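Worked example

This section walks through a single chain of length 153. The input is the sequence exactly as stored; nothing has been trimmed or padded.
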Amino acid sequence: MQATEITRRNAAERRRDTLARLGAERDLWVSTAHPDHGPHQVPLWFLWDGRAVWMCTGAASATARNVREEPRVRLSLPDTFDVVLLQGEVEAYRAGDVPTDAADAFTAKFGWDPRTEQGSFLYLRVEPTTVRAWRGEPELRGRVIMRDGAWLG
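Given that input, the structure is written out below as tokens.
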């Protein structure tokens, strides 16, 4: 695929488009690291609540193990042309301790309630501190649209 023309968006347009995608998309890549086991990347379903990303994973998974040791994560939407990268720290909640509104919204979006499963699950909440968004090379400059938890533009 080759893009023939890209109209460069300003920070406000990138923010608008990023928020729309966070509200509409289903999957993202979660990158974690462990001091002994190294980096780990996995796709997970996610819910955007307007302020933070919510995900759920098995309590014994490599992702859960990693965030207990190192809560800093990077998240990315799967499109490699219309890139959205988020960075932040995980707040982890056992299924029995997750805020009800977040768990109910997650269940409503996916039709799956980890709180009712036999296994043990961990909800992961990430409020981004940094967001980068760009479409192709013309938008590399100015790709940071959130810094230190504050939207730019």
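What to look for: Strands lie at 27-34, 38-45, 47-48, 53-58, 72-76, 82-94, 121-135, 144-147, 150-151.
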